[in-house]
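Input record, target 12 of the design panel.
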């Protein structure tokens, strides 16, 4: 039984294979199904910050053709924005190490955009959370990269992982946003349908 009641009887479809987004929605008590399509995540290089995530969620939502009256599609994209640079999902351990070295002892922004697609309209919301890492030692970085999954995470880290527990000094904003979906804001939107 779902805890969150959604007005107008909309069927919620999560357009993502992210296990973290799936878990966050389940933990919030939202009934949904998953229907995801692979999407090329390239974007114009002139885009900055939330322009990137908003571009990508719109691109992901375009994979869904023929949205029905009773459906709402949710697509999301999360990036780490540090020193005016997009740190996406690392391609390999070498790039991941560079990302974590860059984030060490620095405040950075985690931006998630969420696109809600209905038959006749589309709404995009964006949420920013600021995260401050302590000075990470090379041993801590290596331990994390050798023992945890990082390739599917923006900025090469999961705040819910070991590195978040030992390395994050402070966050300003939504914790779930850093995990991959600003749940409070998603629920607020869905309840206003």
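The sequence produced for target 12 reads:
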């Amino acid at each position: 039984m779902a805890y969150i009641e959604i007005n107008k009887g909309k069927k919620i479809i999560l357009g993502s294979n992210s296990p973290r987004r799936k878990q966050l929605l389940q933990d919030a008590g939202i009934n949904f199904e998953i229907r995801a399509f692979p999407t090329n995540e390239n974007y114009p290089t002139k885009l900055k910050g939330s322009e990137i995530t908003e571009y990508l969620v719109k691109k992901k939502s375009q994979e869904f053709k023929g949205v029905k009256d009773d459906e709402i599609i949710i697509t999301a994209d999360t990036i780490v924005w540090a020193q005016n640079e997009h740190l996406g999902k690392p391609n390999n351990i070498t790039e991941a190490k560079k990302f974590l070295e860059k984030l060490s002892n620095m405040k950075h922004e985690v931006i998630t955009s969420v696109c809600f697609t209905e038959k006749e309209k589309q709404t995009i919301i964006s949420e920013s959370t600021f995260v401050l890492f302590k000075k990470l030692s090379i041993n801590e970085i290596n331990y994390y990269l050798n023992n945890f999954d990082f390739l599917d995470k923006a900025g090469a880290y999961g705040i819910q992982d070991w590195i978040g527990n030992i390395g994050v000094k402070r966050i300003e904003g939504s914790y779930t946003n850093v995990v991959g979906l600003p749940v409070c804001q998603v629920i607020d939107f869905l309840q206003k349908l």
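The first strand starts at residue 11 and ends at 14.
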